[in-house]
Amino acid sequence: MVDRFLEQQPAVSAALLSPQVRRGESDICTLTEADISNAEDIIKALKPMNDATILMSEESSPTICLIAPLQAHLIQDTKDSIGESSMVREIKQAISGDLSKRYKSEQERNTLFTASALDPRFKGLPFLSEEERGEMYGRVIAEAASLEQEVRVEEEETPEHNTLREEDTLTTEEEQYQSPSNKRKSSSSLLENLLGQTFTDARVQQQPMSAYARAEEEVTKYRSAPSLPLSDDPLSWWSKNQMMFPLISKLAKRYLCIPGTSVSAERVFSTAGDIVTAQRSTLASEHVDQLLFLHKNLHI
Question: pTM for the complete prediction?
Answer without folding.
Answer: 0.72
